[in-house]
Write a structure and sequence with these properties.
By secondary structure, the protein is mainly alpha-helical. 77% of the residues lie in helices and 0% in strands.
Length: 189
C-alpha cells in the first residue's frame, strides 16, 4: 500500500489532512472523505487511518465504510491493523471493519487464528462481548489443532489465545476461569 508518487509526496497527505479535519468539524463532509478514499484506497486509506487515529466519530465511521467496500488482501489487512493500536478505543469501527476483512482473507488456519484473536479484541472494543468471546474461542480451538501438529511453532499462539479467551470469560464467569486458563496452559506446554 504505497502512496502514489505521480500525485506528489505532499498532495495526498495534505488532501486527507484537510478532509479529516473537515469531517471532525462538520460530519456531513465525511461523504466527501469517503469518495476521495474510494477513488484510490491504496493511496488514501493508510494516510487517512494514520491521520485520524486519535479522532473517532464521523472519521471513524467514514473509514469503516471505505474498508467495508474495499477488497483488501491479507497483507494489506495486516499493514492497516498495525496502524491502529489494540485495546485503546482508537477508531473502533474502522479497526473492526479491517479485522473482519482480515478473517475473510486468511489463507491458512494459522492466519485465521491470529485474525480471529484480533477480531475478538476489536469486537470487545465496540461492546460486542458475546461475539468477541465466540471469536476468541474459535481462535483457541484452531490454535489447539495447530499445536497438535506443530507444537514448537504454535504453543505461544495458543497461550495468547487462551489468555484473551479466559480474560474475556473472567468478566462473565469469575475467578474459576483463571484456574481453567492455567490448566489449559499447562496442558498446552
Amino acid at each position: 500500500m504505497a502512496t502514489s508518487s505521480a500525485v506528489g509526496s505532499e498532495g495526498p497527505a495534505r488532501l486527507i489532512h484537510h478532509l479529516t479535519r473537515a469531517a471532525h468539524h462538520a460530519p456531513e463532509t465525511a461523504t466527501g472523505l469517503i469518495a476521495v478514499i474510494r477513488a484510490d484506497s491504496r493511496t488514501y486509506l493508510p494516510l487517512a487511518l494514520a491521520m485520524a487515529c486519535y479522532g473517532a466519530g464521523p472519521v471513524d465511521t467514514a473509514l469503516a465504510t471505505v474498508v467495508e467496500g474495499t477488497h483488501l488482501t491479507f497483507e494489506e489487512c495486516c499493514e492497516l491493523e498495525e496502524l491502529i493500536p489494540l485495546n485503546t478505543g482508537v477508531l473502533p469501527n474502522a479497526a473492526l471493519a479491517i479485522a473482519v476483512q482480515h478473517c475473510r482473507r486468511a489463507g491458512s488456519n494459522a492466519q485465521l487464528a491470529v485474525a480471529l484473536r484480533r477480531l475478538g479484541n476489536r469486537l470487545g472494543a465496540v461492546g460486542r462481548y458475546g461475539e468477541a468471546l465466540a471469536a476468541t474461542e474459535e481462535a483457541v480451538e484452531l490454535c489447539r489443532e495447530l499445536v497438535a501438529f506443530y507444537p514448537d511453532a504454535h504453543t505461544s499462539d495458543l497461550a495468547g489465545a487462551l489468555l484473551t479467551d479466559r480474560f474475556r470469560m473472567k468478566f462473565g464467569v469469575g475467578l474459576g476461569s483463571w484456574v481453567l486458563f492455567r490448566q489449559d496452559l499447562v496442558s498446552a506446554c
